[in-house]
Automatic annotation (TrEMBL), chains A, B:
Keywords: DNA-binding, Repressor, Transcription, Transcription regulation. It comes from the Bacteria. This is Transcriptional regulator, TetR family. InterPro entries: BetI_C, Homeodomain-like_sf, HTH-type_TetR-like_transc_reg, HTH_TetR, Tet_transcr_reg_TetR-rel_C_sf. The keyword DNA-binding applies. The keyword Lipid metabolism does not apply.
Length: 213, 213
């Protein structure tokens, strides 16, 4: 293990402590001292790796973003756009304990960011990045004729991110076992609005059956 | 002024202090003592009107809900469903200082509720009520042929509330002057997905012009 590896490992250990603190008591539970105590290290060690409480919070949120990105890289992007999007969305929906923790940290971060300029710009940049990633997939779906002609890829990307964010906020005030059943059909219903059904794409036989002449 | 009026006025004064505290420092800024100080009354007076910190927070959030409901009652429900919905949505989008405060309080409340069962059920009940109110309007839109046949009123109501919640979260990390420009086109784009255009409803001449035979 190199010195760089060791430093990365220590930072990750401290970030883990920050995430647990936010999950338990929100952003106010985070202080340099509380992180030192939770991680079982000295205050000086926390100060060696992180400048301030704000940096701790931003790095903790960045860690969650990088984690989702890492898992997103394992999603195959070759299939139908709708399946690709669904697989990406499923990486984030809070349907188990770990994902719920991440979503709670995101929500606490979002609430805190509304009054702290240093967090605000980071939160806005993450949203922008996600909209762009969705738009890229939806542009491809538009070119391949999967997207409804009524949907503009850029507008649809913004709408999709909004739906996901809103559903996550709403699902977090439900008991965890109820969340999957709340989220899945609502995500599908929104994708139904954006994507043509196989029948509309001209592949189905429904139209023929319904013709009575 | 009756004794009842005076009590209502005092409660409202205390709730105003709670809202300002949440807006300035989030839920952790609220305590019985902090509210007494901010409102310029004794701790005993706060305790006379409110049992606990949780009750203060729930009542502050309920106050915002009642305020929106009150303004919603002034919206005429007779026009086209899309205009009615748009007018209701505009009561909530954080495009000025007062509405931004209300939205920040909602977001702080939502984040706090994820780990506090006493707040959780209230937050979930408010969401459910809003979905039902939207569904009622969308059912009428479906019957009158305004809604796209692809949209189910109940699913569309849930999607609409999710879009609004998500857009509000995202807009709160933008500078206030940017918010209206961020929100309005995205709300319209989502309503475009749900409602038929005048042309699709059979009123437009576009189809005739495009026929070449």
């Amino acid at each position: 293990m190199t010195a760089g590896d060791r430093a990365a490992e220590r930072r990750a250990h401290l970030i883990g402590a920050v995430l647990d603190l936010i999950d338990g008591g929100g952003i106010p539970a985070v202080s340099m001292r509380a992180v030192a105590t939770a991680a079982g290290v000295s205050l000086a060690q926390v100060q060696y790796y992180f400048r301030s409480k704000d940096q701790l919070i931003v790095e903790a949120f960045r860690h969650i973003c990088r984690d989702v990105e890492g898992r997103a890289a394992a999603v195959g992007f070759d299939g139908p756009a709708r399946s690709v999007l669904r697989a990406l969305i499923d990486l984030w929906l809070p349907v188990d304990e770990r994902l719920s923790r991440d979503a709670r940290v995101w929500l606490a971060f979002s609430a805190e960011a509304t009054t702290r300029p240093s967090l605000m710009s980071f939160a806005a940049a993450v949203d922008e990045e996600l909209r762009e990633a969705f738009a890229q997939i939806l542009r491809r779906a538009s070119e391949s004729g999967e997207l409804s002609p009524a949907a503009d890829p850029v507008a649809a990307a913004a709408g999709l991110l909004a739906v996901i964010d809103g559903l996550v906020v709403q699902s977090l005030v439900l008991d965890e076992p109820e969340r999957a059943g709340f989220l899945a059909p609502r995500v599908e219903a929104h994708l139904d609005l954006l994507f043509l059904s196989s029948r509309e794409k001209g592949g189905g036989q429904g139209g023929v059956i319904e013709e009575r002449t």
